[in-house]
UniProtKB/TrEMBL annotation:
It comes from Microbacterium faecale. Residues 3-251 form the ABC transporter domain. Belongs to the ABC transporter superfamily. This is ABC transporter domain-containing protein. GO terms for biological process: peptide transport; transmembrane transport. The lineage of its organism: Bacteria, Bacillati, Actinomycetota, Actinomycetes, Micrococcales.
Length: 270
């Protein structure tokens, strides 16, 4: 399976038809299962807009987003549902992405039922427990009846990952998914993501400004500046022999990633 953006552009215009802003300019991009692809750049570089295009939350002004060569079309409901199952999202703000009035079992279970992964209550519960175990929230029974405010930030992010993998996606688009977490908690969530790549063959589109993290986990890197992809290549090539002045500037300004062990008592890491 191949997720691809072909010369995708997105221009936003004011409601009165005045000033236009080109957020993404003819960006071409490829992601596949089992591959950790990072998109890096400063704030305002167009990374999150590209993520929304890849998730087809917004339509491109020009160009196309394709899955296995077939253009994505939100107007075709069956195709859109299939796309959602194969390409899932994990976003920056777990608190804002979880309904505060729903327990964790409801949050994950409703997605399982909606996509016909399971229908019977016992099967839905079994699948919910399975995905919570996979992301390190074990024993799952401890978390099923909790509400989002009863979880730590890292645990909430794990719930989002669990909800995503409940659909057995081929690719997860993670937009600044760990940026709001403390360093030690961030390490634990990253470990979960890498484990899923190795165990389940999940691919990632990992959007971040955190270059030390990218150096640690990415296979391939795209560099964005002012809506354009100015450089891309294998991780070692980008970090060891950057060709574009902007890439060199980003690398020169990047901090060194400290070594932290995730707090197992808080995050439930096995």
């Amino acid at each position: 399976m191949r997720l691809e953006a072909k010369r995708v552009s997105k221009t936003f215009r004011s409601r009165r038809g005045g000033h236009a802003v080109s957020a993404v300019k003819e960006a071409s991009f490829v992601a596949q299962p089992g591959q950790f692809v990072a998109i890096v750049g400063e704030s305002g570089s167009g990374k999150s807009t590209l993520a929304r295009l890849l998730l087809y939350l917004i339509e491109p002004t020009s160009g196309s987003v394709e899955l296995d060569g077939a253009p994505v079309n939100r107007r075709d409901r069956a195709a859109a549902i299939s796309y959602r199952r194969n390409v899932q999202a994990v976003l920056q703000d777990p608190a804002g992405s979880l309904n505060p009035r729903k327990r964790i079992d409801q949050t994950i279970g409703e997605v399982i039922r909606l996509h016909d992964i399971a229908r019977r209550a016992a099967d839905v519960r079994r699948k919910t427990e399975e995905v919570l175990d996979i992301v390190g929230m074990s024993p799952a029974e401890r978390f099923l009846d909790r509400y989002p405010h009863e979880l730590s930030g890292g645990q909430r992010q794990r719930v989002l990952i669990a909800r995503a993998i409940a659909l057995n996606p081929k690719i997860i688009v993670a937009d600044e998914a760990i940026s709001a977490l403390d360093a030690s908690v961030k390490a634990g969530v990253l470990k979960v993501m890498v484990d899923l790549k190795e165990r389940l063959g999940v691919g990632y589109v990992f959007i971040t400004h955190d270059l030390p993290v990218v150096r640690k986990v990415a296979d391939y890197v795209y560099v964005m500046k002012a809506g354009e992809i100015v450089e891309h290549g294998e991780k070692d090539k980008i970090f060891d022999s950057p060709a574009h002045p902007y890439t060199r500037m980003l690398l020169d300004s990047a901090p060194v990633l400290p070594s932290h062990r995730p707090p197992a008592h808080e995050e439930g890491i096995r």
